[in-house]
Amino acid sequence: MTMTDTAARELALTAFHAQSWSAACAHFDEADRTEDLGPDDLECYAQALSLVGRDDACVRVLDRSYHSRLDDGDREQAAECAFWLAFNQMNRGQMASAGGWLGRAGELLGDGADDAPLRGLLLIPAALNALLTGDSDAARLLFEKAQRIGRISGHPELRALSGLGLGQAMIAMGKSAEGMAQLDAVMVAITAGEVSPIVSGLVYCAVIIACHDTYDVGRAAEWTGELTRWCASQPDLVVFRGECLVHRAQILVLNGKWTEATEQVQRASECFGALVDQVGIGMAYYEAAELHRLRGEFAAAENSYRRASQSGHETQPGLALLRLAQGRVETAMSGIRRALDERGKPGDRPRHLAACVEIALAHADVVLARTAASELADIAAASTARLLDAMSAQAWGEVLLAEERPRDALDELRRADDVWRSLGAPYQRARVRALQGRCCQDLGDMDAAEMELDAAADVFRLLGARPDMLALRSLRGIDAETGPGGLTPREVEVLRAVATGCTNRAIAEQFVLSEKTVARHLSNIFSKLEISSRSAATAYAYENRLMNR
């Protein structure tokens, strides 16, 4: 090795320990031209390559380290190198190659000590497979065994991976509190910098996803903040940055910062695109679709949901809610029923149930809506997540309002309002306040109704939630687009229904209103048109060609 090569190697190692990954790669590339790098150097080189997204080069360098250790007779280190090659391939979805490397690692380990770190590392893939196939108890036992070996050996990566898996297994078994406590313990080691960057990034993302799946908003925000700071400390980090941006966007959407969330999702898409990460980019497309849907940008939402699906990401419940907003209620109903009938991730079910309540009520299926709300309430009761409490109370409020029990509905909606306010969720709170306004209307308290609806309208306007603004204007009868005789769009719809012979009950079911609200609309119609009977209203509708519009 020449003096120039030695200088390049030293610069590479200095950059590596400073977590300047691009510089480390550049200097390692230069030093490697003589092919004199030792296995320790090669493994640092491989880590840096992985962190800047050069996965193929990472595998080639790790393979060289593996063979170098074999040539040196260091079977134990060669076996661990084989494990990390398998780990890299598993993360890329190349399971056949990963299985081959795991086989080599096992052969090299042979009858080695039961407390050897590699013994524990080799338990991780089997435990993950058990977890993914639904055998949570078997996964827990394997992760616990790996964790014991990690504690005895003091191997930081083994302790982190086994603790992560154990927490995930507990959550899958319905022991969310114990599982999250286990994940918190793992995060202490991660934030203290005790674990390699690749494992640290994986743990950060997995823990935040666990928070998302258990509806633990507080933890999700806290660990997302930590991940953001971790990524910021490594400016040229490529992997994990996309996930970080998507997780930030999810928190920003909840907090009503939609513009900033859109920027984060766009940046995440660019990061994933550079890595050709299909799973990650699917997640980014789904979040982009949700933002488009909430703003009423339906064509853009449709395109983003399609791209999410092409990347392997589930599009429900967002796509069903888009169909509902487009007025395609039957299609929305089919989509959400399919999602509920499939065996998906347990963490997705509450979101599907909440969407089912809204869609079923639009479909005039109050029985289905009540069934979905009841299951959601059971899930919320078994959890300590306040987000689930808010979702459940809101769902029950919607059902009770449809059942013409506005006073009972108002109690549930007040409870949901309190939780949404405490969580800093302005959009969800505005939707609840709009529902409270409808309750007050049905109870005859028009002053309270106006105040609730005004408060909701202010938030929808600020956020740019156009579909909600239009629905609210229609509800209040103050849409600028009025029909003949000064009728509001909703009054025109009710008049058309009367002209086809519908009863008040049928009209209420069709438009998901209470019969009392329908009666009030009819009273307004009669007053504006100066008529006094349904037959006169029918004649007016045909004379003014309202039936052909």
Features:
549 residues; mainly alpha; elongated
Helix content: over 70%
Number of helical regions = 29
Straight-line N-to-C gap: 84 Å
What percent strand?
A: under 5%
Envelope shape: elongated
Largest sheet: none
Low-confidence stretches: none
Average residue pLDDT: 90
What class would the helix/strand composition place it in? mainly alpha
**Element order, helices and strands?**
HHHHHHHHHHHHHHHHHHHHHHHHHHHHH
Overview of the molecule:
With 549 residues, this protein is mostly helical. The protein is 78% helix and 0% strand. Helix 1 packs across helix 3. The termini are far apart. The model has no long low-confidence stretch (mean pLDDT 90).
Put the structure in a nutshell:
The chain is built from 29 helices and no strands. By secondary structure, the protein is mostly helical.
What's the arrangement of secondary structure elements?
Elements: H1 3-17, H2 21-31, H3 39-51, H4 55-71, H5 75-91, H6 95-109, H7 117-132, H8 136-153, H9 156-172, H10 176-191, H11 197-213, H12 217-232, H13 241-254, H14 258-275, H15 278-295, H16 298-310, H17 318-325, H18 329-341, H19 349-362, H20 366-381, H21 386-402, H22 406-422, H23 426-442, H24 446-463, H25 466-476, H26 489-499, H27 504-511, H28 515-529, H29 534-543
